[in-house]
Structures are given as C-alpha cells and as structure tokens.
C-alpha cells in the first residue's frame, strides 16, 4: 500500500497473496553476490532456478526500521512493473527473514563483464545495444512514476547469452512526487547526479528536492563506461568524483566519440536536470544511432560467468551445506524436517 506522501512503511505495506513465497519450498544454493545490506544466492523455488536475496535486518531499532522500509519498497516496485529489461519478480516473504526471489540471470553483472573484457572495449554496436536495454528499462520505471536512484554497472545483470541487460536491485527506488522531499543518502557517489548533493557538503541523510532526471545523469555515466570500458573519473575516490561533478561541473571526457553519441552523453549529464532528455527521448536517440551502425564483430570476454549449480536438486552439495544445520558432532540436522528454507539461516549469515 502506498502512503499519502509516496513512501512505503512496513505497517502500511501488504504483500499480495499471489507474490507470497512459501519458504518451505525454497532451496538455497551457492552465494553469487553480496552487498552492504543483503546477500544473493542461487537457489530453487517450486522447480525453477531463481536468485534469492536475503536482506539483513540490522542490529538497532533504527537500522531494522530502515531496512524493513527499503525491503517493502523494493517488493512493491518489483511487483508493480514488468518489462523484458527488468529482472522478473517471482515473490517475497518477510518472515522468518526478509527474502526477495527473482529470476536467475546467469550472465553476471555488467561490472564483471566489462572487467573481464579489459583492456579491450565493447564493439560500439554492442555497447549502444546494452545502453538501449538500460534506457528501455528506465523508460518503463519512469512511466510508472518510479525513480531508481542507483543506476550503476553492479545493478545491471546480463542474460546467459550475454545479449540482453536487465536492471535489478530496487532497494533505493522510490515513487516520485512533485512535492515530497527525498533523502540525498542514496545511490553510489561516482554515478550520482550532482543535485543529490548538498551545496555545502555531502551531509548524511540531507533532504532535497529532485526528480526522475537523476537517473538520466547516472545513465550517461554508465553509457560512458560502456563506450570506454574504463572507470569514470579515474584517479578519484568516489567522494572526489562526486565533489568534482557537483561543485566543479567536471564530467568524463566525451571527445573522440561520434558526434551523435557525444550529444547523447552530454545532454544526459547536463548540470540543469530540466535540460536533460527523458528516457523516451534517449531511447529514440539510441535507436536512431544504432540504425546507422554496421553489424558488430563478435567479442567474447576472457572469463564467462556460469552457474555451477544450475539444476540444484535437493540432494546437491550446494543445497545440503546451506539447508542443514549440523550439530557440533556432525550429527543430524537440528529443528524440523530437513530440506526447508529455515535450515539455511545460520550459514547464510
């Protein structure tokens, strides 16, 4: 349920029964990702391979409330929108821990893909094609009044054939309101839009007015990275990059790029948010540019991410090591019937 100011709270949030995951049917396998507030595992739910995100509740009442609110928002956003370039939402549960279950994407993150390719660059057509996937995902979100606020290569996952990019991680996504004040404590500094920062300093949790154009700026930084396969603002820390972008209007170099591509970049990262194009316009510009490019040459990264537990039967080592909590002597699992989701928690954390 959405509150009057566009925010979601746990008390107001009700999970539609069709999205409710039965944890007894959830099997947890190898860990495939980890962030500050959650870990992501490969798993299986009702005979389909899935990605299982387990959110840490935190240690203090403030942390618990904040992470429960973030979890509630993410589930609300994921259940609200469907698009071929957004990770497919399968379901969630809040007890005994907060879990988000989505489709399993085996291509790895865009960050890992680009790192494995270095020092080579993507073929321009491939890079622009990936950018078009991202722009279409953002166009869908914005059409539903949702700002992602954390667009970066770590939150972009490739399909197993490395031909399609999908956007994941809606933990920082928010409903947009023309009047609400939203926190500047969001996203990752290197990719964040300058208007998210304080005019004095990057104060933790400062409230500011901003709109969906923050995602256009982040998109431009990701597009630059796709085209150059280099870290934007090289030689700077995340905070130094944020300071340079916000207070000195510094941007990555857009020289030596085709004029049309340079125009897309520079228009998306303009200092004035209102001067940036929306994602429908960005999609049109990218489609137009792709139409004049020759077919790409195949490029294969030196290391391909692949699942070592794609089938993940209940008796597999990946499942049994996480699902069963052995006693100190290596005896039988403690608790109820083995094989259920509840047996993984001690080892998940």
UniProtKB/TrEMBL annotation:
<feature type="binding site">
    <location>
        <position position="53"/>
    </location>
    <ligand>
        <name>ATP</name>
    </ligand>
</feature>
<dbReference type="InterPro" id="IPR050167">
    <property type="entry name" value="Ser_Thr_protein_kinase"/>
</dbReference>
<keyword id="KW-0723">Serine/threonine-protein kinase</keyword>
<dbReference type="GO" id="GO:0005737">
    <property type="term" value="C:cytoplasm"/>
</dbReference>
<protein>
    <recommendedName>
        <fullName>Protein kinase domain-containing protein</fullName>
    </recommendedName>
</protein>
<dbReference type="GO" id="GO:0007165">
    <property type="term" value="P:signal transduction"/>
</dbReference>
<keyword id="KW-0067">ATP-binding</keyword>
<comment type="similarity">
    <text>Belongs to the protein kinase superfamily.</text>
</comment>
<dbReference type="InterPro" id="IPR008271">
    <property type="entry name" value="Ser/Thr_kinase_AS"/>
</dbReference>
<keyword id="KW-0547">Nucleotide-binding</keyword>
<dbReference type="Pfam" id="PF07714">
    <property type="entry name" value="PK_Tyr_Ser-Thr"/>
</dbReference>
<dbReference type="InterPro" id="IPR000719">
    <property type="entry name" value="Prot_kinase_dom"/>
</dbReference>
<keyword id="KW-0808">Transferase</keyword>
<dbReference type="InterPro" id="IPR001245">
    <property type="entry name" value="Ser-Thr/Tyr_kinase_cat_dom"/>
</dbReference>
<dbReference type="InterPro" id="IPR011009">
    <property type="entry name" value="Kinase-like_dom_sf"/>
</dbReference>
<dbReference type="GO" id="GO:0004674">
    <property type="term" value="F:protein serine/threonine kinase activity"/>
</dbReference>
<dbReference type="InterPro" id="IPR017441">
    <property type="entry name" value="Protein_kinase_ATP_BS"/>
</dbReference>
<keyword id="KW-0418">Kinase</keyword>
<feature type="domain" description="Protein kinase">
    <location>
        <begin position="26"/>
        <end position="290"/>
    </location>
</feature>
<dbReference type="GO" id="GO:0005524">
    <property type="term" value="F:ATP binding"/>
</dbReference>
């Amino acid at each position: 349920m959405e509150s009057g100011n566009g925010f979601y709270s746990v008390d107001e949030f009700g999970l539609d029964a069709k999205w409710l995951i039965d944890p007894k049917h959830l099997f947890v396998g190898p860990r495939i990702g980890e962030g500050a507030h959650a870990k992501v595992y490969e798993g299986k739910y009702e005979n389909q391979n899935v990605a299982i995100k387990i959110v840490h509740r935190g240690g203090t009442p403030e942390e618990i409330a904040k992470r429960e609110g973030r979890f509630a928002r993410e589930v609300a956003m994921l259940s609200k929108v469907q698009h071929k370039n957004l990770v497919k939402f399968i379901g969630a549960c809040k007890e005994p821990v907060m879990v988000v279950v989505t489709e399993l994407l085996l291509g790895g993150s865009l960050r890992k893909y680009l790192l494995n390719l270095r020092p080579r660059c993507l073929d321009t057509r491939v890079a622009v094609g990936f950018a078009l996937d991202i722009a279409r995902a953002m166009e869908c979100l914005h059409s539903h009044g949702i700002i992602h606020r954390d667009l970066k290569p770590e939150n972009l996952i490739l399909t197993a054939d490395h031909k399609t990019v999908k956007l994941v991680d809606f933990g920082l996504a928010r409903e947009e309101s023309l009047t609400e004040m939203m926190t500047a404590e969001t996203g990752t500094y290197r990719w964040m839009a300058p208007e998210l920062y304080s005019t004095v300093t990057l104060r933790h949790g400062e409230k500011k007015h901003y709109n969906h154009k923050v995602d256009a700026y982040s998109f431009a930084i990701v597009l630059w990275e796709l085209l150059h396969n280099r870290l934007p603002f090289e030689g700077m820390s995340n905070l130094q990059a944020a300071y340079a972008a916000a207070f000195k209007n510094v941007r990555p170099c857009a020289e030596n790029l085709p004029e049309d591509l340079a125009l897309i970049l520079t228009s998306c990262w303009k200092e004035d948010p209102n001067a940036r194009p929306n994602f429908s316009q960005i999609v049109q510009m990218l489609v137009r540019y792709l139409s004049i490019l020759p077919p790409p040459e195949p490029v294969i990264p030196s290391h391909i991410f692949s699942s070592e537990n794609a089938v993940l039967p209940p008796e597999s080592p990946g499942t049994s090591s996480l699902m069963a909590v052995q006693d100190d002597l290596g005896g039988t699992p403690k608790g109820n019937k083995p094989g259920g989701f509840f047996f993984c928690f001690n080892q998940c954390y």
